[in-house]
Amino acid sequence: MLTKRRSxxxxxxxxxxxxxxxxxxxxxxxxxxxxxxxxxxxxxVTVLTAPREFFTDYIDSYDPSLESTVHPDVTVERxxxxxxxxxRDIRKYSAFxxxxxxxxxxxxxxxxxRFFPEPxxxxxxxxxxxxxxxxxxxxxxxxxxxxxxxxxxxxAWIMGKLMRIPYVLDYRDSWTLDLFTDEVKYPPNNPVxxxxxxxxxxxxxxxxxxxxxxxxxxxxxxxAADRMTVVLNGWEPExxxxxxxxxxxxxxxxxxxxxxxxxxxxxxxxxxxxxRLARKEPPLADAKLxxxxxxxxxxxxxxxxxxxxxxxxxxxxxxxxxxPKAEVSKAYSELDILVFLAAGVKYITSGKVFExxxxxxxxxxxxxxxxxxxEVLRGYPLWFSVPELExxxxxxxxxxxxxxxxxxxxxxVRAARRHARRFTRDxxxxxxxQRLRAVxxx
Length: 442
Known about the structure:
With about 450 residues, this protein is α/β, with parallel strands linked by helices. About 40% of the residues lie in helices and about 15% in strands. It has 2 domains: about 10-235 and about 425-440, 3-Layer(aba) Sandwich (Rossmann fold), CATH 3.40.50; about 235-420, Rossmann fold. The chain has 18 helices and 15 strands. This is D-inositol 3-phosphate glycosyltransferase.
């Protein structure tokens, strides 16, 4: 028999977050921070996520240290899915798949599309089943689903109908809009459009990471525009730690640096062409450019990305590899100027920009000036932007940043950090948590 929440007891949140620690996939910091924030605010939080072996054995995208950063009061339930799509061992293939791989993929895709048009569709039924069992034991008050994958949205819609409780959608990515081309991903007759319209129609709130994405969806789905809001990404003081304020040594070459995952869609060629030009300028003749982080989110990406980094040229460019969580603050402290490298056009914010600002260091933009991250950087006192993504203009920004860095004062660093404090995860999530508390109680 379904139990009711007693008056005064904490609201119960069912959080559908397929990508959750220990994965290091894009967006995991947002899902981790959301679960932690709600737990810290007194919610009873249960996260339904993918099996650990999916991250460790199938997509090889995980960071073991991330699991220990999940709030101790968060309950994590790992729900399985059909892993045939990601199976790499041919010995485990069926005879049909092994002998007719193209036909197998076509049949599999058509079968999948009849139910839900996404490779993660097989997660929907088991996650709904698990949620119903948990709800029968102790009632949930609210469902929050984060995408991608957008199977989580479909699951939330089904759960909302069956459990008769509200659900909220968090678009930390776009389902139907290609963020890098500014074009829709699917033809008009694709079933994905019916699904997106359906889940948005019945959601209590629909959340986006920036205003550009909210506006695009509000225009496409005007009937839900008044329920669409923005919850920015942010930075985590507990992960970044305290970055020591260190003034550049006049006798030492300036150290430029990028920290984050290097991806194939980033404008790497523009970065290195700009750097070649910058190194011809006297203030940067001996400057260094250090890259910290993984090469792509998946192992196969590294082989394609490494040749695009000019490590063999005499340019002072080095690849330092991934930085353990405990050493992120140290890596930032050793750099003088940060390079904010990002892909895409107006709909991209990037989570890394918030952490960059939190260091209080000069930031050089290497991205299309139309991306949504520029709205976040606007007002940051040590930001060196470009009017266009052109090597000569990026070079000029690098030279200007170098000159400013040589004259940098501690007060300038503190002022930059004050700007960044408004973007801590707690600061950006507080209003969201309060709205959802009202929905849960309503």
